[in-house]
């Protein structure tokens, strides 16, 4: 029971993080919601499993945030693979602005437009570039990203540099 | 004296070159520092825009749905396990308490552990599934590639199994048609099994044809 409450707290805290990751990989709102739920379930099961299994899980991670982000990213990549196989994966980059948290807030319209452009731009990047940039934008260090992706830190630096170049070009092309 | 002057003038020139190089270096450092600042500024802007683009999430509903999905998953695992055990128990009851012929007895003895073992294996696989999601992305992608290869391998084995059964059935059909002229019964059975073999073959060929591109797509993500 105590563990359930702990996991519920964890999901509440990291739901926005998972939602951002889902939005980075999926443009369709209903599929995004499905993906967030799949991520939550995966995080729950991983957290539960890790609590029982002392050899693996999040104990070795730098932080719970890293653990959640890794599980969420894995689920997102899994989702992309499945959608590719179903040949239903949308590349139209549409973004439903009515579902952003900023819609209800008093932030100005320009800021919101920038946010939409960025998400749309991110979704146009190759998965490997999208991943590093999304994690960097979440505030993870290059070392943390390297551990999450299972690649060298130097490879992360290269990918970040190329991803930034590509995203800048995409953002400049956007009307 | 003239040599000294010449050396002095060369020293001065070298000093002036050094100064020039130093000032160019400073300029380039200043430029790179400006560039870095611009990059940092751009990253900060993107970070803020990224956070602003957070889709709204009803966390209470999310937790409720996740709980329900988790319960359904657990229930499905338990039902599979219980069903497997129940079928095995039924087979065991037949073996222990029913009057069976030698052939039936041997058949049920062989069949008894299979459903329970399959149910237990499925339950064990489900229990360990979470581990894949905690792997790093590269390992997870390698796992996915391996899974696709294994899937093709299973379909290949299924195809061979189906073909072996079909050949056995053909032999029986030929025997029964020649000996007892039971053409309709055995012909129908052979036809139905041919359809099964054809479907398994088509599925295997489709998976085999799709495998290289599926693997390449995953490779692109690495």
UniProtKB/TrEMBL annotation, chain A:
Keyword Transcription regulation attributed: yes
Region named Disordered: 88-109
Matches recorded under InterPro entries: RNA_pol_sigma-70-like, RNA_pol_sigma-70_dom, RNA_pol_sigma70_r2, RNA_pol_sigma70_r4_t2, RNA_pol_sigma_r2, RNA_pol_sigma_r3/r4-like, WH-like_DNA-bd_sf
Domain (RNA polymerase sigma factor 70 region 4 type) ranges: 117-167
Superkingdom per UniProt: Bacteria
Domain RNA polymerase sigma-70 region: from-to ranges: 11-86
NCBIfam families: sigma70-ECF
Similarity field: Belongs to the sigma-70 factor family. ECF subfamily.
Protein name as annotated: RNA polymerase subunit sigma-70
Native source species: Alteromonas marina
């Amino acid at each position: 029971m105590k563990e359930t409450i702990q996991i519920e707290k964890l999901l509440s805290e990291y739901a926005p993080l998972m939602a951002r990751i889902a939005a980075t990989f999926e443009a369709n709102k209903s599929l995004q919601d499905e993906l967030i739920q799949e991520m939550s379930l995966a995080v729950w099961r991983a957290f539960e499993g890790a609590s029982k299994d002392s050899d693996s899980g999040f104990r070795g991670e730098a932080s719970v945030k890293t653990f959640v982000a890794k599980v969420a990213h894995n689920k997102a990549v899994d989702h992309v693979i499945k959608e590719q196989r179903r040949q239903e994966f949308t590349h139209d980059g549409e973004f439903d602005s009515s579902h952003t948290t900023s819609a209800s807030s008093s932030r100005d319209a320009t800021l919101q437009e920038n946010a939409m452009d960025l998400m749309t731009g991110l979704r146009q990047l190759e998965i490997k570039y999208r991943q590093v940039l999304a994690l960097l934008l979440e505030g993870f260090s290059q070392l943390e990203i390297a551990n999450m992706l299972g690649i060298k830190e130097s490879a992360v630096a290269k990918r970040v540099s190329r991803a930034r170049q590509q995203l800048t070009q995409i953002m400049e092309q956007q009307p | 004296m003239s040599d000294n002057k010449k050396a002095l003038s060369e020293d001065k020139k070298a000093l002036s070159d050094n100064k020039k190089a130093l000032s160019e270096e400073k300029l380039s450092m200043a430029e790179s520092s400006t560039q870095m600042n611009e990059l940092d500024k751009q990253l900060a802007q993107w970070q803020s825009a990224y956070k602003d683009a957070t889709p709204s999430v009803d966390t209470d509903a999310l937790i409720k749905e996740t709980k329900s999905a988790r319960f359904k998953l657990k229930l499905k695992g338990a039902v599979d396990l219980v069903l497997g055990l129940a079928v095995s128990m039924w087979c065991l009851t037949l073996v222990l308490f029913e009057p069976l012929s030698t052939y039936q007895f041997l058949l049920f003895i062989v069949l008894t552990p299979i459903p329970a073992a399959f149910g237990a294996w499925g339950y064990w696989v489900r229990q360990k599934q979470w581990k894949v999601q905690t792997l790093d992305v590269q390992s997870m992608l390698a796992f996915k590639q391996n899974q696709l290869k294994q899937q093709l391998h299973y379909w290949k084995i299924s195809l061979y199994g189906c073909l072996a059964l079909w050949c056995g059935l053909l032999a029986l059909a030929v025997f029964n048609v020649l000996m007892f002229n039971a053409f309709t019964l055995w012909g129908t059975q052979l036809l139905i099994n041919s359809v099964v073999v054809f479907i398994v073959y088509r599925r295997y060929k489709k998976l085999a044809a799709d495998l290289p591109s599926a693997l390449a797509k995953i490779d692109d993500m690495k």
